[in-house]
Design brief:
This protein is of the alpha/beta class and about 350 residues long. It is built from twelve helices and ten strands.
């Protein structure tokens, strides 16, 4: 797959190998022509799977199947390819091999290879801007400070590798309501009863361009309920593997009842919820984000803070790295700027 996952108007499947011509002659209604767009039907026997555009690559080394991006269409065509002997590179095998994509340089091949990992329009635009950004950078004078700044910027890496964000707090602090606000729809059950969330809930949320895996966890509290206790224990693994912890505090409860979480998660993004019922201690934490989860107040500030945390405060077209190879080249270029020619 050369296009991002999920339903879309168009999806591109690239097929490579010695079986390409035989597959097209058997399953495509027109004769594919090298370097030209040919419109026809992709068939599985007498059944039409889709109408699309096929482009035969130079030397008949492969072909691009430009088909409709519906889930059923893609699954049907990929299943057909697998039956015809192709090894299908799916979501668990991204990015595809660089040999399977176009480009005159390694950098130009890394772009389409990693494009399927982009989960938002902003991520796609940021990635597509990189060849031009790097060309412009190399045309000027590159100092070590510039390289250090690029190395420190992991924004594009996170855009292609969605970080895990865990929401943590005591019971009934409003974590699930905040999660639903960030999901922009109801994914977690919220109620005015402690222990409502019995298990961790993890799903993708688009925070104004940065896609994250948002993990809503059960309230951390002592409980005699064995099911709730097991859920709390299991969620600890999810929190431990998170790239960021949103530590939600309840403004209407004394800080002494929650301060153990500040000690447990010293590196976290603090959020004080229920500020409409705030006690005096709230003023002692000016750095915390203030919210009213039930109305959505402060949720935009959380979105912006999470983006800043992951170097995605802006989605400008400046040069960024997105592969381990590029990062290694940049590290070497701190001492030898000529190595940037490898980019």
């Amino acid at each position: 797959m050369l296009t991002p996952p999920g339903a879309g108007a168009i999806a591109v499947i690239r097929i490579v190998g010695p079986g390409v011509r035989a597959f097209l002659e058997k399953h495509f209604s027109k004769r594919a022509v090298e370097g030209r767009c040919v419109y026809g039907e992709i068939r599985d026997g007498d059944r039409v799977l889709d109408d699309g555009v096929v482009v035969l690559l130079p030397g008949e080394a492969g072909a691009d199947l430009n088909v409709h991006g519906g889930v059923w269409v893609l699954e049907s065509i990929l299943e057909l390819l697998a039956r015809e002997g192709f090894a299908v590179h799916g979501a668990g095998e991204l990015p595809p091999p660089l040999e399977a994509v176009d480009g005159e340089s390694v950098l130009e091949r890394e772009l389409p290879a990693y494009l399927p990992l982009a989960r938002s329009r902003e991520g796609i635009e940021m990635l597509l801007a990189q060849p031009g950004a790097w060309k412009k950078l190399r045309e000027g004078r590159i100092e070590r400070g510039t390289i250090d700044a690029i190395l420190a910027d992991r924004g594009l890496w996170w855009m292609l590798n969605p970080p895990r964000v865990a929401i943590v707090g005591i019971a009934n602090v409003g974590k699930s309501t905040l999660a639903n606000q960030l999901f922009a729809q109801e994914r977690s059950i919220a109620a005015d009863l402690p222990g409502t969330t019995r298990d961790w809930v993890g799903e993708s949320a688009n925070l104004d361009g940065l896609v994250v895996t948002l993990v809503d966890t059960p309230g951390l509290r002592a409980t005699e309920d064995p099911i709730e206790r097991a859920a709390i224990d299991q969620s600890a693994e999810q929190v431990a593997s998170a790239d960021l912890v949103l530590l939600v505090l309840d403004a209407s409860i004394e800080l002494s009842e929650q301060s153990h979480l500040l000690e447990q998660f010293p590196i976290s993004l603090p959020v004080i919820n229920k500020i409409d019922r705030a006690l005096a201690w709230v003023d002692s934490m000016p750095q915390a984000i203030r919210t009213i989860a039930t109305t959505g107040e402060g949720v935009d500030a959380i979105r912006a803070a999470v983006r800043r945390w992951f170097d995605c405060e802006n989605f400008g077209p400046q040069a960024r790295w997105w592969t381990p190879r590029q990062r290694g080249v940049l590290q070497g270029a701190r001492e030898n700027p000529r190595l940037l020619d490898d980019l």
